[in-house]
Fold:
Amino acid sequence: MSIDTINNDFLDLFKQGKSLLDDKSSKFMNTKREEAFEQFKKLGVPTLANENYKYTNLVPVFDHPYTVDLQYRTVMGDLNKLFYCDVPELDTNLVLLSNGWYYNQNRKLDIPEGVIVCSLQEAAEKHSEIFEKHYGKYAKPNEEGLVALNTALAKDGIFIYVPKNVVVEKPIQVINLLRSDRDLMATQRNLVVVEENAQVKLIFCDHTLTEHKYLSNTVSEINVAKNAIFDLYTIQNQHLNAAILNSVFIRQEANSNVLSNILSLYGGIIRNNHYTIFDGEHCENNTYGMYLMDRNQHVDNFTFADHAKPNCVSNEHFKGVMGDEATAAFTGKIHVRRDAQKTEAYQRNNNLLLSNDAVINTKPQLVIDADDVKCSHGATVGQMDDDALFYLRARGIHEEEARMMLMFAFAHEIIEKIRIDALKDRIDELVEKRLRGKISKCSTCAIACHQ
Amino acid sequence: MLSIKDLHASINGKEILKGVNLEIKPGEVHAIMGPNGAGKSTLAAVLAGRELFEVTKGEVIFEGKDLLDLAPEDRAREGIFLGFQYPIEIPGVSTVNFMKTAVNEHRKYKGLEPLKASDFLKLMRDKKALVEIDSKLTNRSVNEGFSGGEKKKNEIFQMAMLEPKLAILDETDSGLDIDALRVVANGVNKLKTPENSTIVITHYQRLLDYIVPDVVHVLFDGRIVKTAGKELALELEAKGYDWIKEELVK
Structure:
C-alpha cells in the first residue's frame, strides 16, 4: 500500500466516522478535530522524505487493516482484577486505560482535594475552563502529521489537574493496556496541567495484553506552571507486534523543574517525540532515556529543547544497548533563541553495540541564535570495554556475568536518575532480567506481556 | 606451586617474552625487577590470562594444572590474583556488588553455597579493617574517581577478600607516596601465610624494604637473566641495570 492510500483511508474514515467521532466529545474538541483534519490532509503520515523521520519508516507500520474504535468499547471482565501492579513499596495511584480510553471502573484515588484525575472526555465537559485553556495549545497539528492525526481522531485519554500549591505525594501511575480481540489502532490523548508551585509525579506504563498487532498513536500535552515540579516516567514494554508512537509536548513556565525519563525495554517499533519549550526564565529540565533493543526491534527517540527564554538549563542524556539486528536512532534538537541568553543546554547519547548487525543513527542538531550560552553535545557508539571485562574476569567473574555487569552499569546511569526509589529498584530488576535475556515482565503481574 | 618453562609470548607478532623460566614454592616471595620494557607486566598479564598476548611456546603449571588452558576467571578461581598496575575504573558497578559476585563465583567453583548477606558484610568489614581501606571507597563504584593510592589499596582489599594462593603484584608501588606504600605493604604482609606465595613486580627497590623477598630475579629483554637473594635488589638500586647488560655481553 502506498502512503497516499494510507492517508486517503484516514480521510475516508474521518468523513464516514464524523458523527461517531463528534459524539460524546465536547464542541471545543470537535472544533480542534476539524482543524486538525484539514492539517492532516496537507501533512499526511510522515514518510522517510521528512527529515525528522529519516530513520523510521512508518509506511509498513500503518500499512495494515487495523480496527479503529471511535467509541468506548465496554471492557469485558474487571480490569482491576485482571491487572495489578504489585511492586513492593511502590505505592501509587493506579489508573487504567484500555486501548487509549479511560477505563470506566477505575478505583477511587488517594489524592489531595482539588486534584482532578479523570477521562479527557469528562474533563472537556466538566472542567471546560481549564481544558480549553490548554488543550491543543502545546501540540501543534500544523507541524506534525502524527499530531494532526491524533487530534483528528482523539476521543479520550487521561486528564490530570493539580491546583496551585498542592503537592501530590503518591505518584499517579497510568497503565495503558492494549487488549483486543483484533488488530487495533489506538489513539490516546492526554492532558496534564500542573499549576503554580504544585508537585506531581506521573508514571506511564504500556502493556500489551493480547498478541494482536497494535498501533498506538499517543499525544500528551503537559503544562508546568511557575515553580512547579513535575516528574514523568515512561516505561515502554510491549510485544514485538506493537508499534508505539508517543509524542509528548511539555511547556515549562518560570522556575519550574521537569524530569522526564523514557525507558524503552521492549517493543516492535517505538518512536518517541519529546518536545520541551522553556517559556519562562530559570527553568530546569532533565530528559533521560534508555533503550534496550535486540532481535529486529527499532526505537527512534526524537527530542527538541526549545529555549525561548533566558537563564534556563536543559540536560539530556540517552543511552542504548543494542544487540542482534536491532536499529535505533537518536535526534537531539536544541534551539536557543536570540533572546535566550545565559542558556545552558547539554546533550549526550551513548550507545553500546553488542553485535555487528545492530545499527544506531545519532544526530545532534544545535541551532544557537544567542551569543552568551553554554551548550555541548556528544555521541558515542562503542563496544564493550575489553580492559574492564578483563578486570572483572581476573577476579573470577565468569565472562558472561562480567558482560552482564558492564551492560547493567551502562544502563544504570539512566535508571539512577529516577526520583522514586521503589520504581528505581523495580526498573533495575526489569533491566537486569531483560539483559539476561529473560522476559522482563513484572514477576507478580498477571499479564503475559511477551507471549 | 608455579612452574614456568621456556615461556614465549608476543603481541601483534612482536615477541616480548623470549623464554622465561621460573619456579615458585609455597610460602615464597619472589621479586621480579628489571628495566622498562623488559616484559615484567607482560609476564603478569600472561599469567592472569590476558588474551591480548599470544603464548607461542612453553608451559605454565600451577598447582598441577596447565594454567594456559584456563580462562582468566578460572585461573582466578584456582587461586591466581593479579594486582593491576593500572586498576580499571568501572562506573556503575558498585564495589560491594563486584566483590559479592566475585566471592560467590569463587565459592561456587569450590562447590560452596553463596555467602549469606550478613556473612558477606562481615567479611567485607573484617577485610577492610585488615588492609586499612576506608568505607567511603568501598561504597563507591569500582575505582571510580579514586586517586592512584586509593586504587592500589583497593587492589589489596580485593586480594584480601579473595585469599589467593598466588598473588602477582604488578608495580603495586608505582604512584604511591610513602604512607600509601606502607599501608599497601602492610596489607600484603598481613595476608601472608606459609602456604601462599607472592610475586612482586617492581622497578624500584623501595617496596622491597617493606615486602621482603626470598628471591630476586632480573627480567631483561624477555628473559630472566639473574636470580639471587634479596641483596640483589640493593645492588640494583645502587648500580642500576647497566652492569647486568654488560655482564650479559661478556
Summary: Residues 3-380 of chain A form one domain. The two ends of chain A are 29 Å apart (CA to CA).
